[in-house]
Design a protein that fits this description.
Shape: globular
CATH architecture of the domain at 208-354: 2-Layer Sandwich
Number of strands: 14
Largest sheet: 8 strands, mixed
CATH topology of the domain at 208-354: Alpha-Beta Plaits
Oligomer: single chain
Mean pLDDT: 93
Structural class: alpha+beta
CATH class of the domain at 208-354: Alpha Beta
Helix content: 25-40%
CATH superfamily of the domain at 208-354: GHMP kinase, C-terminal domain
Length: 363
């Protein structure tokens, strides 16, 4: 852990304490080059690049009051979408206990955390990315209010670091438009410890890129992403996968810089299929595709071949399909989605999203 984030002596004085309330909205993100496999304390086995979304987000509020017994365990009352969720609460409590060296005041306070998503939880739309980055931003904001500091690049870098400890892909959600996580020799300032913004590296065509999420299933996945990452430890093709992902990061950053939509799309689709190939060939193996997923992928490729319109697909670790396309093709592609693709979605549900401006503090 970097020394600059360890603050073991930074405690609250009860005489000066004032209750704090903060609320953040943080987006999900969609990885273009996938992170799959980790080591150590949430460190990636390969670098990744993602677009930051807009409408797919989590809003999390934190209310903080002083606790009578600072020696007691972490005190958290967690509510998700209006309901008490002990399973989520236990995970949140475990995470908060793991970062008391960074936020010592967590032992001194009682927290009420209320969270809600704009999209189905645990269905392969990176809900942990939006939820854990929103929580991390709230913690950093509490720390800022208690002990001072400004919201600058260092604030968001720290929030990215904290997000990573909660959920690896969450570290990319704290930046607008696009982010990269993981060390790459060819990218200055890249790090395994936190994500970095890469918007300035992108051609303008990608700043307004569209992402429509086709919700094939809103049921929780039967294999969690955490379990999937663990299966990479002994995967027969792990080494080759990590090397290829590293090369794809360099390639996609170059095509993003040049505004090469077709080349970017080829890498995006290859990465999505490779991710699921790792799942299919793991031991034990598992399949997250639904029959409708396959139907959608085929229709997208047929549409692109017939029309020449640069419409590409990707998927996270789930059955739902993300469609990526330039903003100037929105009218044609949206007509295709509504006419041909939505019928493959559960209750014809889809989320018309785009690259977004990143997190927002609501209070």
């Amino acid at each position: 852990m970097p020394d600059k984030y360890a603050q073991k002596d930074r405690l609250l004085k009860s005489s000066d304490f004032k209750p704090i309330s903060t609320e953040w909205r943080s987006p999900s993100n969609i990885a273009l080059v996938k992170y799959w496999g980790k080591h150590g304390r949430q460190l990636p086995s390969n670098p990744s690049v993602s677009f930051t979304l807009d409408k797919a987000n989590t809003i999390t509020s934190i209310d903080c009051s002083l606790k009578e017994d600072p020696a007691a365990d972490i005190s958290v009352d967690f509510v998700f979408e209006g309901k008490s969720r002990p399973d989520f609460s236990d995970r949140i409590k475990g995470f908060l206990s793991s970062v008391t060296d960074i936020f010592p005041f967590l032992k001194q306070v009682e927290l009420k955390i209320i969270s809600k998503n704009s999209f189905p939880h645990s269905s392969g739309i990176a809900s942990s990315a939006s939820s854990m980055s929103a929580l991390a931003l709230g913690l950093c904001e509490m720390d800022r209010q208690f002990f001072g500091g400004e919201k600058d690049l260092e604030f968001f870098q720290k929030a990215s670091y904290i997000s990573r400890l909660a959920s690896g892909s969450a570290c990319r959600s704290v930046y607008p438009i696009a982010a990269m996580w993981g060390y790459s020799r060819g990218v200055k300032s890249s790090s395994d410890e936190y994500a970095i913004p890469v918007t300035e590296m992108l051609h303008p065509v990608f700043h307004s890129f569209r992402d429509t999420i086709l919700v094939v299933s809103d049921r929780p996945k039967f294999v969690s992403s955490s379990a999937g990452h663990q299966l990479m430890d002994m995967h027969l093709f792990a080494s080759e996968r990590f090397q290829k992902a590293g090369k794809n990061v360099v390639s996609i950053l170059e095509s993003l810089r040049r505004g090469e939509v077709e080349e970017t799309g080829k890498i995006i689709e290859s990465e999505a299929l490779m991710l699921h190939a790792m799942m299919l060939s793991s031991n034990p193996s598992y399949i997250l595709f639904e029959p409708e997923t396959i139907a959608l992928l085929k229709k997208v490729r047929e549409y692109r071949a017939d029309t020449g319109i640069p419409l590409y697909f990707t998927l996270d670790a789930g059955p739902n399909v993300h469609l990526l396309y330039p903003d100037d093709q929105k009218a044609k592609v949206d007509q295709f989605i509504k006419g041909e693709l939505m019928k493959h979605c559960i209750s014809e549900k889809c989320i018309f999203d785009r690259c977004g401006a990143g997190p927002e503090q609501l209070r």
